[in-house]
Amino acid sequence: MHGGYDIRALGSGIRMTAVIVIVLLLLVVGALLVFSRLRAARALEDARAEARRWHEQLGGQLSTLDPQGSAAARQALADASERFNAAGGEIASARSVRQVELARDSALEGLSYVRAARTALGLDPGPALPLTSAQRAAGEITVPRSVEADGRRVSAAPHAGDGTPYYYPGGVVAGRRVPRGWYSEPWWRAALIGGAWGLGSALLFSALFSPVFADPGYDAGLVSGDVGDSFDGDSLDGDSSDGDSSDGDYEVGGFEDGGDSGDSVDSFDSFDGGDSFSDFGGGDF
C-alpha cells in the first residue's frame, strides 16, 4: 500500500488493459485481412465470370458460322478458334484478376476475328466489341495501300479482298503496334514465333507505317493511333510502346482510334491459309 493505493493491484489493472487492447487490435487486423481476402476472391470470381461470358459467346459463334468457301472468312475463323482454345486454358489456370483479364482479352480477340469473318461473308458483324488497351493504341487501317519492301509487295486494307485475306485484330507484336485490318500476308507472325522482328518484317513494318519509308501517298492512309518510332536497325525491341507515343495525334497515314465452356473448337484448325504459320493465332502476343 502506498498513499492508500494498492500498487500491485494498479499494475495488474494496467497490464490487463494492455492485454485487452492488444487482443482487440489483433481482432481488428484479422477481420481486415479476412475482409480483404474475401473482396479479392470476389473480384477474381467476377472477372472470371466476365471472361467466361465472352469465351462462351465466342464458342457459340464458332459453332454456328460457316465460312461458305470464303478463304478470308475461313482464315479468320481458324484464328478465332485458336483464340478460343487459348482463352479457355487461360481462364482455367488464372490465379489473379490480371491473368483473368488477359484471358478475357484473348476471347475478345477471338470475337474480333469472328466479326471479321462475318464482314467478309457480307453479314452483319453484330454489336461492337470492347477494345483491349493494345487494340485502342494500335488503331486501324482506314484506306487501302500497298508498298514494296525486301523484294515483296504487301497490301493493307480496311476490308477483306482477294488480295487481302488475312485479318489482324490490332495489338502489340514484339513491342510494335500493328493496326487492325486486312493484309495480303501475315507478315507479323514471324515476330510472334521468334518474339522479335526480323529484318524483312521490320522493313515491311516501316514501309507500311512509317512516312520515312512510305510512298508519297502515305499521308492519305492512317488516322490516329500510334505504331511508334521507325526501326533504326539496332533496336527492334519495341521502344515505341511506352506511354509517350500514344498521344493520338499521329496523322501520317491511316489509323483510327477504336475507342468455362472449356471445350476446344478445332473445326477450322486444319486450314493453313496458304502459309506455314496457320497454327498460330493472330492475336497471341
What does this structure look like?
- The chain has 285 residues and is of the alpha+beta class.
- The protein folds into 2 domains: 7-120; 133-245, no CATH class.
- Helix content is 45%, strand content 8%.
- The protein has 6 helices and 6 strands; from the N terminus they run H-H-H-H-E-E-E-E-E-E-H-H.
- The longest helix is centred in the N-terminal third of the chain and has 58 residues, at 7-64.
- 39% of the residues are buried.
Q: What number of structural domains do the residues give? A: 2
Q: What's the SSE pattern? A: HHHHEEEEEEHH
Gyration radius from CA atoms, angstroms = 27 Å
Strand elements, count: 6
- Summarize model confidence as the mean pLDDT: 74
The percentage of residues in β strands lies in: 5-15%
- Summed up, the helix count is 6
Give the helix/strand class.
Answer: alpha+beta
CA distance, first residue to last residue: 79 Å
User: Largest sheet, if any?
Assistant: 4 strands, antiparallel
Helix share, percent: 40-55%
> What is the general shape?
elongated
Low-confidence stretches: 212-285
Widest beta sheet: strand line-up? 1-2-6-3
Transmembrane segments: 12-35, 187-209
Keywords: Membrane, Transmembrane, Transmembrane helix
Organism: Virgisporangium aliadipatigenens
Biased composition (Acidic residues): 231-250
